[in-house]
Design brief:
The protein folds into 3 domains: 92 residues, Alpha-Beta Plaits (2-Layer Sandwich); 109 residues, Oxidized Rhodanese, domain 1; 53 residues, no CATH class. By secondary structure, it is an alpha/beta fold. The relative contact order is 0.12. The chain contains 11 helices and 15 strands. This is tRNA uridine(34) hydroxylase. Keywords: Oxidoreductase, Transferase, tRNA processing. It comes from Raineya orbicola.
Length: 327
């Protein structure tokens, strides 16, 4: 995908972050936060709830630094941990700032990670602990994510969405008994509630990889993470392991070894699967002949990334009102 936002010589960043904290008026903060992003060229997806803030955004190095300073200057978000990745240009095409009941849909609204959660392990601490025979590593992500990449010997769950975690994890309780349990996910946010839920269920030695897979790759080289990590921007999947990389996924269509992830071009399917470049072009970004022939199939540009339907969402809501009050 040609990135029209890329300016030659400029450095761009992607920021992945979250912060569990109390926000008394999410709607008011949504508008303030949204307008800051518009004024400073920040694109991405941000969720605001009474329980905190969660986002992935992209922008120039200067814009992202200004954005981090803005977030961290607010006492409520002073402990926010930003994962910073260098990229070639914007990894989003729009800015979305929405208010939702939770900053990650978990079905565990009664759990407050500021009061109870697993012990945070730094990437280096995780690296030292992961091969301990008394440790089990538990993946808190969805099927399409862990099928593309996961830690060696990790326990995975058959879930399509994190809200299924509380019930599905019960199926592996026998494997967790008497062990040190280390949960992990992409950036750490799901593990805040996943680890707290395990503590609630009576498990005692519960840990979580602080900053998730992304931070582990950035700070500890990604050793023993097999495959690629699915991300929620137009890169779709990123390399993590710089030490002993391994491809574990196969093309959904032809079965050849492949870690090239796409979303099916049929919006009614939108299957998240690995598809090799040859099959990608042959099937025009679709995951099957049926999807290829669907009348609503989206044009394929070789990336397999499609901007989500905005459902009437207006990214400039409040912009004119602010402009008229500041003139």
């Amino acid at each position: 995908m040609e990135n029209q936002n890329l300016t030659q010589g400029q450095e761009y960043w992607v920021l992945l972050y979250y912060c569990y904290t109390h926000i008394a008026d999410p709607e008011a903060y949504r508008e303030e936060h949204h307008l800051f992003c518009i004024e400073n060229g920040i694109l991405g997806r941000i969720i605001i709830a009474h329980e905190g803030l969660n986002g992935t955004v992209s922008g120039t190095k200067e814009a992202c630094q200004k954005y981090m300073d803005y977030v961290l200057s607010d006492e409520r978000f002073k402990n926010t941990d930003f994962k910073i990745e260098k990229v070639q240009g914007h990894t989003f095409t729009k800015i979305h700032v929405r208010v939702k009941p939770e900053i990650v849909h978990s079905g565990l609204r009664h759990i407050d990670p500021t009061q109870k959660t697993g012990i945070h392990l730094s990437p280096e601490e995780f690296k030292k602990l992961k091969d301990d025979p008394d440790v089990v590593i538990l993946d808190a992500r969805s099927n399409y994510e862990h099928k593309l990449g996961r830690f060696k010997n990790a326990i995975t769950l058959d879930i399509e969405n994190f809200r299924e975690f509380p019930e599905k994890v019960k199926e592996v309780f026998p494997l967790l008994q008497g062990k040190k349990i280390v949960t992990y996910c992409t950036g750490g946010i799901k593990c805040e509630k996943a680890s707290a839920y395990l503590l609630e269920q009576g498990f005692e030695n519960v840990y979580q990889l602080h900053g998730g897979i992304i931070k582990y790759g950035l700070e500890a080289g990604g050793e023993d993470f097999e495959g690629k990590c699915y991300v929620f921007d137009n890169r779709i999947a990123v390399e993590i392991n710089k030490i002993n990389p391994k491809v574990i996924s196969h093309c959904y269509i032809c079965g050849t070894e492949c870690d090239r992830m796409i979303n099916c071009a049929n919006p009614h399917c939108n299957n998240h699967v690995p598809i090799c470049e040859k099959c990608g072009w042959e099937y025009e970004g679709a995951c099957s002949t049926e999807c290829k022939s669907h009348p609503d199939k989206r044009p394929y540009d070789g990336t397999g990334y499609y901007q989500k339907n905005t459902n009437g969402y207006n990214p400039y809501k409040g912009w004119k009102r602010k402009s008229t009050t500041t003139i």
